[in-house]
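Hey team,

Sharing the Glycogen debranching enzyme, archaeal type run so nobody has to redo it. Sequence (659 residues) first:
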Amino acid sequence: MTFNYGREICGNLSTAQSREWLITNGIGGYGCGTISGVITRCYHGLLIAALNPPLKRTLLLSKLDETIQYDYQTYSCFTNRWFDGTISPQGYLNIESFRLEGTIPVWTFACGDALIEKRIWMQQGENTTYTRYTFKRGSKSLQLSIKALVNYRDHHGTTQSGQWKMGVEEVPQGLCVTPYPEATPFYLWVQGAEVTLNYHWHLGYDLSMERYRGLWDRDDHYNAATFNKTLEPGESLTIVASTNPQSSLDGKQALQERSEYEQGLLKRCSNFSVPWIKQLVLAADQFIVDRPSSQNPEGKTIIAGYPWFADWGRDTMIALPGLTLTTNRPDISHDILSTFAKYLDGGMLPNVFPDDNQTPQYNTVDAILWYFEAIRTYYTLTKDITLLKDLYPLLQEVIECHRQGTRYNIHLDSDHLIYAGQEGTQLTWMDAKVGDWVVTPRHGKPIEVNVLWYNALTIMIEIGDILGQPTGEYKTMARNSHAGFQRYWHPSLKYCQDILDSPNGHDKSMRPNQIFAVSLPHNKTTPPLLKPEQQKSVVDTVAKMLITSHGLRSLCATHHQYQGRYGGDQVSRDKSYHQGTVWAWLIGPFVEAHWRVYGDRALANSFLEPMANHLNDGCVGSISEIFDGDAPMIPRGCFAQAWSVGEVLRVWAKINDPS
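Structure output:
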């Protein structure tokens, strides 16, 4: 798929700053920004390094401000919006075009008859960002002057510089920045350029997206140095920013290695002929990162979303099939499943790994149940019986912990359904919480949790049969849970209730969670949870009341608590997060359920087609976390989300599999 925008996009500041780009390094580090070059988020920067992979993400290289002297004219190739509203300079007007080459953002600047290309990418496995300028066309030489603005702060924060003076010293072919004695030093190298050290702050960058989110909306960055180089037509200049003092300075070779890496990802999926799906194969890789530990130095995990999420247990297990198995990378699946097995505790998986290396948080009822489904999907593809043997005792322990009861009042109730929740907790995927206010507590028996529980029991039957283990106990539990599940069906509404036995009784709200009762696979020897006519009614009702171009609404628009717009401060955002906001990842189970009920491939694909257009919006080449519930369904939240990409890939491959 071609992502190529000309002046009709690049020359319109409002449009150009609404489209973002993302580069990653496979260890949790990243870089991102807007097509226009305007910084609108605290997360924008060329090198956000993972100093303790995959976390401790720290902004190091904020931006590079390029000025070109050509044919007695001066051209700015960067744009700043200052806190007083001033836009100066307006370098976006010199952007001839923007495009993606794989995941590499490429700008072309037009300066008279000169064309200069700029590419940005990261070295896989290193906190290293390359920025390469190539003088593509011109009738004479040009002078390229580049100011390097640096920082050293958590990527969630902002900087008010005060009297902070960073340590900057010249080294061969560049400089070393040591923000303060205890900081990790980092380097900027430019071969063949003149280096002039600078020691002052640029104050008052305006962060419009942070203001929209109700957060502090200004930032300062440190002007560490200026690089000057005369280029002849056909010549290139590469700036290398890295925490690795031995990083390669060969920009041409590094670019070739990055291109070969991405071509290798696509070769694994050579059977994918649809261009936008091939782009999602590359997007999928951006979420897969290292999580090394003493027990598992080769451990892997999945970043839930860029720019602000870390790795979450629930998101990892939901995204895993699409990101790793659909893309023919079962070795990554194996590593992730093995990594997370080390964190099983009390029959639960962590919900989130904190940035500060504290004890993982286990406040999720469904992450462990999605783990079962990830294992099932992995084995179906690989037939890796060794991993099944290793994990089976742990899975048995999980079932027993739920039967006996574990954290947060999670237990198997007398009706053979899972109950979860206690005051002040948010345990399902609808987990917004502001201070002590749990927006959607969903205490009781959430429907998707019990679909997943039944699914887990059927998987235990499957694994037991494969390993030659007795399965009678799990068959009995599955039969009992199947019988208990019938309480969810509401005959007059002709759809399933969302929660049973909550402190306020049963919750009949029309939410998307019931779609899993149709979409999730089941053991061939165990019956589905809903009858065929009930499955059809659920799919039809969800389609009528919740479907949008980019996913399912989290609450139907006729509900009195429905919120059609997402934005504002944290209270306003979290109030709407699961109360009508559209979630892209839910398009996966919906399309699969529709395919199961109707068996119409073209009709099922029609629900996915708008996602191809969305790849041109938000984060170019990826899929956003959420969208407004009301038209025109503007993308919100994280601009690139793992389970959004994973579920679209997974379900597209499933319904278009010629076998």
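The chain has 18 helices and 37 strands.

Ping me if you want the raw files.
A.
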